[in-house]
Amino acid sequence: SRLKNKQKAEHAAQVAEQNSKKKGKGKAPPPRSTMPFKPTDRILLIGEGNFSFARALTLNIPSSLEDLPPKNVTATAYDAEDDCYVKYPDAQIIVQGLREKGVEVLFNVDATKLEKTSALKGRQWDRIVWNFPHAGKGITDQDRNILTNQMVILGFLRSCTPFLAVGPIPSATQTLKRKQTSEDADNVKEDADEEEDGSLGEWRNTGTGERGTVLITLRNVAPYTQWDVPRLAKKPPAPTSASMKPNPIYALRRSFVFDRRMWSGYEHRMTKGERAYGQGRTGEGGEDRTWEF
């Protein structure tokens, strides 16, 4: 009796599936792409590798960003310029095109020590972006590898806060609701005072004047999900020594699928270069996801 009931249920499911296909149903609509930038944004790109994302953003421009001035984009790489071209042979011609277009390109920029780069000092951006961060240490022990990359993420989040544009918290459909505290009100007042004296005016958002945000993109599968980036941003661990500065606490504004189809010519490159790890199959089978804080 149970076997007959199971066979009937399977047959009914097959019939329903066939009928839905005939009606043109049963296929999920493609996910809606999210554009995290506005044409008025000043954008700082971290860890660019071969600079193909900067190229996609400023040379192969998405239609919604046609009015984005190339001078609003600063693209950086961790490596020295010569080392970058050795690791990524296609980078040199990409960088040449970016500079000719007016994009600022910087090398020797450590994401965890942005304050050490003199060209960045005293400046602020509306979006600070790090696509597919990785320590690049080649550690085979999974736990050590996860911890190493978590430390890099924490260092980045701690380092980039002075470089974020100041202003009210931006709104989004997925924004977590929270009341403005007295500290927030004081910060907004201080930001307004700085605006009046013109010390930061050149580098403020020329659009809404909203507070700058940080965008981190990773594969949304193990081992990257084990880095637990949202928790690191929202609930960072306490410093383990007196010499360590505490991490700021971020609010998650939203997360969304990173749709590579939006970025014509973008090619993800591994931290150690094109030929360092062979096929580079880690993280296959999942989606790319961006978290915006």
From TrEMBL:
Domain of life: Eukaryota
Ranges where the record places region Disordered: 1-38, 174-208
Comp. bias intervals (Basic and acidic residues): 180-190
CC annotations in GO: cytoplasm
Domain 25S rRNA (uridine-N(3))-methyltransferase BMT5-like: 44-269
InterPro entries xref list: BMT5-like (IPR019446)
A single GO BP: rRNA base methylation
Pfam families found in the cross-reference section: BMT5-like (PF10354)
GO MF annotations, alphabetized: rRNA (uridine-N3-)-methyltransferase activity
PANTHER family according to UniProt: FERREDOXIN-FOLD ANTICODON-BINDING DOMAIN-CONTAINING PROTEIN 1 (PTHR11538:SF26), PHENYLALANYL-TRNA SYNTHETASE (PTHR11538)
Listed name of the protein: 25S rRNA (uridine-N(3))-methyltransferase BMT5-like domain-containing protein
